[in-house]
Amino acid sequence: MSRAVGIDLGTTNSVVAVIDRDGAPRILTTAEGSTTMPSLVWFSPDGPVVGEAARAGLDHSPDCTVFGAKRLLGRRFDHPEIRRLARTLPYELTAAPNGDTWVQLAAGRAISPEEISALILRELRRTAEAFLGEPVTRAVITIPAWYDAAQRQATKDAAQIAGLSVLRLLSEPTAAALGHGAHRGEDRRYLVCDLGGGTFDVAVVDAEGGVFEVLATTGDPFLGGDDVDRVIVENLVRDVRQARGIDISSDAIAIERLRLAAQRTKHELSDQLSARLAIAELAQLPSGKGVEYSRVIRRDEMELWASPLVKRIEAPVTDALHRAGRKREAVDEVLLVGGSTRIPIVRKELARILGRDPSVIPNPEEVVAIGAALEVARLDGIIDGVLLIDVAARGISMSTADSECEMVIAQSSVVPTREHRLLATRSDNQPRIEFDLWEGESPEPARNRHLGRYAVVDLPVAPSGDVLCLIEVTVDTDGVVRLGASELVSGERLTLEQLAHAGLSRAEVMRLQKSLLEAAS
Predict the structure, then answer these.
(1) Per the residue annotation, which of 172, 201, 390, 439 is the catalytic one?
(2) Annotation says 508 is catalytic
């Protein structure tokens, strides 16, 4: 059996970890000697450049340098948050033929977020293979707990393109609880708050006798450190206009330089009360003269700008506790995970909501990858005495024709889980039955996420109501939805066709996997 690794595929940075020969988890370092690799891909004239080396593209060609691709996985182009995000990115977003969000590169080439993520995963795989001295073809990959079914499948597709078989998709808060608590051997009731570059996740996790049980999970899929960077940039663009009399809002290179400087300043303000943001050449005037920009930003000033974002933390936290039936006083430990939890105002807000100071993990960016590596060891039988019990992040519903949605699998159901629904023909000799699958629990289709339209075809000739189709809906441990169909009376399997779907087709995934393999050889 080939070696397997644990991977935290992050919005801003990614991490890969393994279990040492002595059974201890180890974070692997990149060629530059860092434990984190920027989730950054520069599509240079000589081919894709990934990680730290891709930072050069941010200066030379920001329109061909993609960051934050994780936020685009499994997302439709017409989603309001994607449309808002598109206005702030230096690269262009476009709609794929099926309505998904893709990245528009130069020369009319469009590329899917799955392909971009695959390049990042391939680089992490190479890092692991260089350390282990042998091929790596399997991985546990962590994902936001609040990822929907389309985003989960898109992550698995990216891994397959990169030549990795996914042992399990593990929610980031669950991985953090495992990475933090597995070696302690204590019975603890955790509340895990994971604020990364692009998402905010909350999970209620109980650890008892080596069993890590997720009771509830919620989150905000468009809340993270990237959004804090965005509001800083928006305020600085306004300041440049007022102080220098120039509008840089449509200058992609200037905005990218401002974003990088804002990000560095944000990091400094985690430890300092003020920091100087300085850019030697922010933009160029029509005369060709460069425009220098410098100003001091106070921590309280940044906190005022970020306040509307930080206030959004409360709703997922209280919702997770409510779904788990747990009062905040019954939580033994609040774990902060993700680099954005270093922001002081975030910690203050969580302390206010929960009535206590959260635990400070020394390396919040690494604990998730450690949890993924421990899950690899558990699945491979290297460690025992640990069991994970996870839940469905969202409910699954079904509808036919113009009917309301009927819930099939409830949110927070323990996974894997399987349920059935019965569909009957409504006319004589009806050849097929079509139905829609939704993610969400509302009876109103518009309030749910459409997963796809399906048809049970080649039905036997029979009077109306005589053909009864049993639709089998399964949510596996990865949170991926699978369907099957059979005739109720005979038990014979029926043919199920997918009429509309999100993400890449199986043929596209196989083609891209082959293409990436050929490019690497």
Answers:
(1) 172
(2) no
Indicate whether 48 belongs to any domain. yes
Q: Are 122 and 520 in contact (CB under 8 A)?
A: yes
CA-based nearest residue to 76, from 58, 59, 93, 56:
93
pLDDT of 218 strictly over 80? yes
pTM: 0.91
Max Cα separation, the chain? 81
- 82 shares its domain with 134: yes
| CATH number assigned to the domain comprising residue 368 | 3.30.420.40
Judge whether 8 counts as a catalytic residue: yes
**Annotated catalytic residue 213:** no
Which position among 70, 114, 156, 266 bears the catalytic label? Answer: 70
Does position 183 have pLDDT exceeding 70, yes or no?
no
Note whether residue 518 is domain-resident: no
- CA 480 from centre of chain: 14
The active-site residue, picked from 194, 201, 349, 390, is 194
Q: CA-based Rg of the chain, rounded to a whole angstrom?
A: 24
Strand, helix or coil at 106?
Answer: helix
Compute the distance between CA of residue 412 and CA of residue 425 in angstroms, rounded to an integer.
Answer: 32
Are the beta carbons of 113 and 103 closer than 8 angstroms? yes
Among the candidates 391, 406, 424, a domain finishes at: 391
